[in-house]
Amino acid sequence: MSPCFKTAFTVCLLLLLAGCVGKVAVPLPEPSGTTPPPVTVPTPPESTLPEKPAPATPEETETPQLPTPRALASLELSRQAQLLIDAGKPDEAIRILEQAVNLHPGSGESYYYLAEAWRRKGNLSQALEYNNLAAIRFKNNPEWMSRIALQKTRIDRLR
Asked: Would the pTM of this model clear 0.85, i.e. be above it?
């Protein structure tokens, strides 16, 4: 064997044994049969305790919901469809709005514009159905509910 190998082997062996030396089993004392007295922690008087904060209202505890990528894509498609409706192309708008609804079925805007596209095409039963779906999605939004009510009036006038 080479002298370098013997030296390296000896150093490794010493390090290994030195690591084991610290792991000597120490006998535990035998239980005496008596238990130590319980530790008591003094509590401060009531006047020095900090007041608990009032419970937050649900509005304060709720974090604002950020739109999902699907919801954002649906909104963008709805805006494109709105331009097509205004340009007199309801068939193209309907195709795009159906994609928007597939991406985000909870989008009230998509249903509103679907109702508008079908109204422009003259299919009033479809228009009314999508108008009702938009009203369900926007039941807590007064601004959109007034737009939906006006749209329903325009649909009903054509019937």
From this structure: no
